[in-house]
Amino acid sequence: MASKMQVSDGDHIARLIACLFMAIPFFERGASNGKFLNYLNKHIFPVFDKLPEEWKVDLLKDLAESSPYTTPQDSRQILPSVVQLLKASI
């Protein structure tokens, strides 16, 4: 997760989505999703509009599925970015 997002690299996007999806059961059992959220906030959300539609849906779906396990601090940090994405897509 230390590498910068390559919008043109479909493999990078697919790996990120797969990792986030596979991590959800760990979040359910108490693992922090803060690092994923920080990565999304710093690297994915700024280029979100450049992603193919299929990846956008998968990312938002996985983000929504992990949201119940987000700490209040992480929620406050990522919420403005999520609201902006939702406003832009409506």
Topology:
Blueprint: H1 10-28, H2 34-44, H3 53-66, H4 72-89
Helix pairs in contact: 1-3
GO cellular component, one term: nucleus
Pfam families: API5
Keywords: Apoptosis
How would you summarize what this structure contains?
This protein has 90 residues and is mainly α. The chain has one domain.
Protein model, in words:
The chain has 90 residues and is mainly alpha-helical. The protein has one domain. Helices cover 69% and strands 0% of the residues. It contains four helices and no strands. The protein has helices at 10-28, 34-44, 53-66, 72-89. It is globular, with a radius of gyration of 12 Å. The model has no long low-confidence stretch (mean pLDDT 87).
Main sheet summary: none
Kindly report how far apart the N and C termini lie.
Answer: 29 Å
In helices, the fraction of residues equals 55-70%
Secondary-structure element series: HHHH
Strand content is under 5%
Tally of domains: 1
Quantity of strands, as a count: 0
Mean pLDDT: 87
**Helix run count:** 4
Which labels suit this protein?
API5, mRNA binding, mainly alpha, 4 helices, globular, 90 residues, apoptosis
